[in-house]
UniProtKB/TrEMBL annotation:
<keyword id="KW-0304">Gas vesicle</keyword>
<comment type="similarity">
    <text>Belongs to the gas vesicle GvpF/GvpL family.</text>
</comment>
<dbReference type="Pfam" id="PF06386">
    <property type="entry name" value="GvpL_GvpF"/>
</dbReference>
<protein>
    <submittedName>
        <fullName>Gas vesicle protein</fullName>
    </submittedName>
</protein>
<dbReference type="InterPro" id="IPR009430">
    <property type="entry name" value="GvpL/GvpF"/>
</dbReference>
Amino acid sequence: MMMLYAVAAADADHAAATDDTSLQAHRYDDVTVFAEPLTDTPERSTREVLAFGRVLQQLWSHHPVLPVRFGTIVSDETELAQLVAERESAWTERLTAVAGRSEIIVHLPLPSDAAPDPEPDEPVESGAAYLRRRAAEVRRHDLETAELKAVLAPYASETAVLPQVRTGEARLSALVPDELVETARAAVEKWATNWSWATVTGPWPPFSFCQETEA
């Protein structure tokens, strides 16, 4: 039994296997698959997931990889070869798309669902006023997002709306060539001065653009 970690190009360096795991590189015509032999099904704990993530980060420090969803298991090398035969073309295409690129993430405020607390002696907001305010905030957010995509367009080959992880915050990720990351960040930061709150983080490994690796 093997747990899959990541897919890389066929010429990936075997030395990318980390010291703290028994990671192995399985080479095929167009891709290399990094996997760890196991005797038991991996525990789906926070500790194990974080350890898995650290291995992915280390692999990426050597060369572009597509992370495989945590807990993906194949019984043996025959099953792995069958999986590669089915997915090799898609994996190769996605590796080409992310090679030499990183992602930056812009964090944007979401429109509030709640009515603001009134100041002392201030009348409570009516239902109609709340709906008008809410509609105006949604329009502002839509405009903000559209403007942000336009700012990123000269630099990003792809953008993606990421799942919400913090209350009141939206995230837009952009896939940017490494040599343009700082320029793209500066453009976003300059644009953000026109808005009440928006921040940019990264560069990060472009794992948000590796969906094709789910098996």
